[in-house]
Amino acid sequence: KAGVTQTPRYLIKTRGQQVTLSCSPISGHRSVSWYQQTPGQGLQFLFEYFSETQRNKGNFPGRFSGRQFSNSRSEMNVSTLELGDSALYLCASSLEGRHGSTDTQYFGPGTRLTVL
Amino acid sequence: DQQVKQNSPSLSVQEGRISILNCDYTNSMFDYFLWYKKYPAEGPTFLISISSIKDKNEDGRFTVFLNKSAKHLSLHIVPSQPGDSAVYFCAASRRSSNTGKLIFGQGTTLQVKP
Predict the structure, then answer these.
(1) Is B42 left (phi over 0), alpha (psi -120 to 50) or beta?
(2) Least confident piece of the model among A7-21, A59-73, B64-78, B90-104
(3) Whole-number Cα distances in Å, B40 to A46, A89, A113, B45
(4) What do you get for the CA distance between the two ends of chain B, in Å?
(5) Contacting residues of A for B42, CB less than 8 Å apart
(6) Backbone phi, then psi, for B83, in 5-degree steps?
(7) Which of A64, A113, B90, B106 could disulfide-link A60, Cβ–Cβ 3.0 to 4.6 Å?
(8) In contact, A81 and A19? CB cutoff 8 Å
């Protein structure tokens, strides 16, 4: 099976612009989660989507949003970019376990966003 | 409030010896724990996990131990190989709450010397 794929791998934007990142989960995985990794804050949870619905959200401002499509592919959008949004954005997918609990998450290679 | 902590930023071991990476957590509601390995500019790679109903799980050279009373888990790598050199993250979740949210530690950089 192919792993989680993310596009683009690298992106350079300027302050005030917006950006859309894309994630394709492992085939059969219906849960997609997004994380931000920065040197200062480490890996932080942004949000999770399951069956096209946002199921959980981390402590990020409303400028960060996402969505999931019927084929489980997901996008995240950051509007009005700030310098502090420069980070590695990681997407992870997982199956839905037998008891409705989320299984192990498998990560994509990430999108490196640089805001100038 | 950092719910998952890896107090050692770095660890250096000799090839063939045991590497022990440690992780502490504060939230007693966590019921699923994972270890990931990460190289620069790549996504984390899943290594091994453990449910809170167990105290040990093995997969080849990797063993994870969970001590619920101490809220502590550790990853043992035996024998260590130079290719194991990477950043290791422990993560915790409330799997039963169906949130899909992993809380990560800050990571420990492991260097295995030939």
Answers:
(1) beta
(2) B90-104
(3) 21, 13, 15, 12
(4) 38
(5) 109-110
(6) -70, -10
(7) A64
(8) yes
The Cα of B80 is separated from the nearest Cα of chain A by a number of Å equal to 24
Most trustworthy range by pLDDT among A25-39, B14-28, B35-49: B14-28
Assess contact for A48 and A33: CB atoms under 8 A. yes
Is the pLDDT confidence value at A55 over 90?
no
pLDDT for position A77: 98
Dihedral sign, Cα of residue B71, residue A56, residue A60, residue A107: positive
- Tell whether the model's pLDDT for residue B38 goes beyond 70: yes
CA distance linking residue B78 with residue A72, whole number of Å: 38
A112 to chain B, any CB pair closer than 8 A? The answer is yes
* B34 touches A at CB < 8 Å: yes
